[in-house]
Amino acid sequence: MSYTVSQLLTQDITFQPIEIKGWVRAFRSNRFIALNDGSTINNIQCVVDFENTNEAILKRITTGAAIHIKGELVESQGKGQKVEIQVSSIEILGDSDPDEYPIQPKKHTLEFLRENAHLRTRTNTFSAVMRLRSTLSFAIHKYFNDNGFYYMHTPIITGSDAEGAGEMFRVSALDPKNPPLNDDGEINYKEDFFGKETNLTVSGQLEAETYAMSLGKVYTFGPTFRAENSNTSRHLAEFWMIEPEVAFMDLAGNMDLAEDFMKSVLSYVLEHNREDLEFLENRLLDEEKTKPQAQRSEMNLIEKIKFVVDNNFKRVSYTEAIDILKNCKPNKKKKFNYIIEEWGADLQSEHERFLVEKHFKCPVILFDYPADIKAFYMRLNEDGKTVRAMDILFPGIGEMVGGSQREERLDVLKEKMKALDIDEEELSWYLDLRKYGTAVHSGFGLGFERLVMFATGMGNIRDVIPYPRTPQNADF
Ligand code: 4AD
Ligand code: MG
């Protein structure tokens, strides 16, 4: 029978003839193959009877080679594993030249592995990260499915800028060398594929709102594109976003949903990816050892995840946060790059991180931001100057979630759009929701890669997505 490494290590099937296929991680003493097939972080040890194995075959058992093994699963004689395979025959499926194969059985830098992103999931670190990414993704669908949400596929190509930030990638089928021009000498997009200007979506929210206002509870989970030139460890030009949207739910309900959702998916990985988490935790501990004591983190990876699952997020209004920031040491001593002087200031990631990492030491939900620094669709509060927005900030990450209660009053929304010069015609369908059966509704967006960063402890967002797209980089 054919098995995976995971099955061999967890099922009770010793002393049976078995077959397995995988890649050689290491071969030592011409006798012990460490074989991995991606099904688990663990390798299975395959013991070769080298005296009765063809010399030419032994030479081809090199790191990276794909092999097919037949043998018997027995209790292991050596230390480090319970069972091992006593090999009776080996077939080399695909050779791997040991002088050229980049992934040697030694420690590689993350930068080197990024350049070899097509091979990096052959390492323990990246196979663990990507298995966790897959589990988290499943847990997200499971959470919404269990809670009565419908999964909605919002368009990737769109004519609207949901966030109004103008950070979009254009989609066009025009000949860039010879585009049709109108009388003003500008490009005539009426002749383009869609008969108008289009771009890759920055958020599925506006379309999700239309479905929430008929199906009640919906969510999107898809790729999102932003042409912001931020070369940071937390920004991608292409990332995945989860956006639930719920009718008749206000901002307080939105906070409850976001908190429950995040706790649920994180506890799912604690339960289902224990070995991968333990591996990543040890990897971080090794990394920590190279840092000075003061910079080492107080909790290890699994403790950090448990802490989030077991403790309430702190809910703090923007106004309270500004008071804390105005009076904090780094602000007074001018240690921040951006000094907080007055109410209305936009928060930079240094401020967000101060609040979660130094002041509250737990995830924080900031709400009721000044209208001027938030998107047009957010519900204006009775004070006339703040909106029902919320951002969820996480230790080590900063902003993980951005969401709000939506402006449901047609006249207020129209006025806001006018002030921001947003074309009413273009968003007439969005305004229709406020004309026909309008109601309080809310939602949020969670950056999937930032969640994966938190769950894996990886410090750079480029290391939690298979093929990162960042400024000047779209390899693979
Ligand atoms: O705060 P943002 O811009 O919110 C929205 O797009 C809303 N339409 C969501 C909604 O209410 N339905 O983005 C949401 C989240 C951020 O909190 C962050 O986690 C992530 O998306 N994000 C990014 N992740 C990686 N790279 C980028 N360039 C990101 N920009 C935002
Ligand atoms: Mg945001």
Explain how this protein is built:
The protein has 476 residues and is an alpha+beta fold. It has two domains: 2-105, OB fold (Dihydrolipoamide Acetyltransferase, E2P); 122-167 and 202-463, Bira Bifunctional Protein, Domain 2 (BirA Bifunctional Protein, domain 2, 2-Layer Sandwich), CATH 3.30.930. It is built from 14 helices and 16 strands. The protein has helices at residues 5-10, 55-60, 110-115, 124-146, 205-215, 251-272, 274-289, 301-310, 318-326, 329-332, 349-360, 410-419, 428-435, 448-456, and strands at 17-28, 32-36, 44-47, 66-75, 83-94, 150-151, 157-158, 170-171, 198-200, 217-225, 238-247, 314-317, 364-370, 386-394, 398-405, 441-447. The chain has an eight-stranded mixed β-sheet with strand order 6-10-11-16-15-14-13-12, sandwiched between helices. A five-stranded mixed beta barrel has the order 1-2-3-5-4. A three-stranded antiparallel β-sheet has the order 7-9-8, with no helix packed on it. Helix 4 (124-146) packs across helix 14 (448-456). The longest helix is centred in the first third of the chain and has 23 residues, at 124-146. The radius of gyration is 27 Å and the shape is globular. Bound molecules: 4-amino-1,4-dioxobutan-2-aminium adenosine-5'-monophosphate (4AD) and magnesium ion.
Low-confidence stretches: none
Assign the CATH superfamily of the largest domain: Bira Bifunctional Protein, Domain 2
> What fold name goes in the CATH topology slot of the largest domain?
BirA Bifunctional Protein, domain 2
Tell me the number of structural domains.
2
Count of β-strands: 16
Q: Averaging pLDDT over every residue, what do you get?
A: 95
Query: From the alpha-carbon coordinates, what is the Rg to the nearest angstrom?
Result: 27 Å
Q: Say which molecules are bound, naming each kind only once.
A: 4-amino-1,4-dioxobutan-2-aminium adenosine-5'-monophosphate, magnesium ion
Largest sheet: 8 strands, mixed
**Total number of helices:** 14
CATH architecture of the largest domain: 2-Layer Sandwich
Shape: globular
Instruction: Give the topology string: H per helix, E per strand.
Output: HEEEHEEHHEEEEHEEHHHEHHHEEEHHEH
> What is the end-to-end distance?
36 Å
- The level of helicity is 25-40%
